[in-house]
Amino acid sequence: MKTIDDLLHLGDPRLYQICEPVLPGDLPMVSTWVADLHNVMQQIRERYHFGRAIAAPQLGIMKRLIYMNIDRPVVIINPVLSNLSDEKFELWDDCMSFPNLLVKVLRHREITIDYLDENGQPQQWHLRGDLSELLQHEYDHLEGILCTMRAVSEKAFKWRK
Question: Which CATH class is domain 4-159?
């Protein structure tokens, strides 16, 4: 079982790699990966008091997999974003891979995400506001993009209190 000590940190070259799709032959591994993602997210919540979702590459699992747990667990496999709204909003973003740093970024107000669930069944979800931002952040991880790379300016960084 992976723990918070397995979390990749800012500067680890794996965080900048584009992830491979989860293939049909990988589906038996998804439950193990999700258990690891859940465990690490719980540890982050206990230590840092934040964390709603985590992407597989943050644990060195270089697959297109996101785990979210706000009011219920959601497994997102091979997501594709579409219908990104023209309207954007600015926010202070945080990341488990650098938990004490906040980065001011711009995100789309609304998106649509097509994905496979943990059973390999196609799903579609239209998201607004904070959930839209959250999934954009996690999707970026699958593309090797960190919120530090999306900062609105060179002064858009601050330490968490």
Answer: alpha beta
